[in-house]
Design goal:
The chain is of the alpha/beta class. It has a single domain (about 5-185), classed as Rossmann fold (3-Layer(aba) Sandwich), CATH 3.40.50. The protein has helices at about 20-30, 35-50, 55-60, 75-80, 85-100, 115, 130-145, 150-165, 190-205; strands at about 5-10, 35, 105-110, 125-130, 180-185. The longest helix is centred in the C-terminal third of the chain and has 17 residues, at about 150-165. The radius of gyration is 16 Å and the shape is globular. The structure holds cytidine-5'-monophosphate.
Length: about 210
Amino acid sequence: MTSFGLIIAIDGTAASGKGTISRKIAHNYCVPHLDTGLLYRLVGYHVLQGIDPIDAANQLNVKQAEVFDLKTLQVSNAASEVAKNPSVRAKLLEFQRRFASKPGGAVLDGRDIGTVICPNADLKFYITACSEVRAQRRHSELLVLGHKISYESVLREIQERDERDTNREQSPLLPAEDANKIDTSDMNIGEVYDLVCLIIEAKLEK
Ligand code: C5P
């Protein structure tokens, strides 16, 4: 099998669909995928249990992501709080860079992949949508998972998190200059995926 070889950085706002797109791309091209938000969620989860954020980052064990419920609003908020901490970010940066150095290529999704973690990524995407559409999508996901929560609280949490992620000093959420920017407010996931694949195929042909 020919090696895919591309490093693909997929950044974007909370609940923009970047995780779903990243997983589908990784599956389609048989490349490893890292959801970097899970790393911050794991640290946030441990902080909620009373552990020091830097200790939690030092003891990071990604296998725990399969065990704990990391999708709650409390963990989302704790993740974006710990994400402001430069020592936590520095620790997680090492892990992410190691992952991205895989010779066959990789897909990483997060907030600062194209700007900080992999500034030399072969392809960069920045995926977003208006906050109301994102809140609707996340609300439906949470209901399916059995969380009893109102649309309004999901919307509030997404807007607060966007605000915190965009305005923090360390690695704020912003599109890399050379990112392909996609607003998915009026697109379904299949349309977004087809567009991303077209851009990847064009890159692979070069
Ligand atoms: O992507 P997800 O919503 O799971 O990320 C949870 C939080 O982790 C984000 O709100 C953000 O504060 C933080 N994060 C980050 N940098 C990344 C990925 C996530 O700061 N690369």
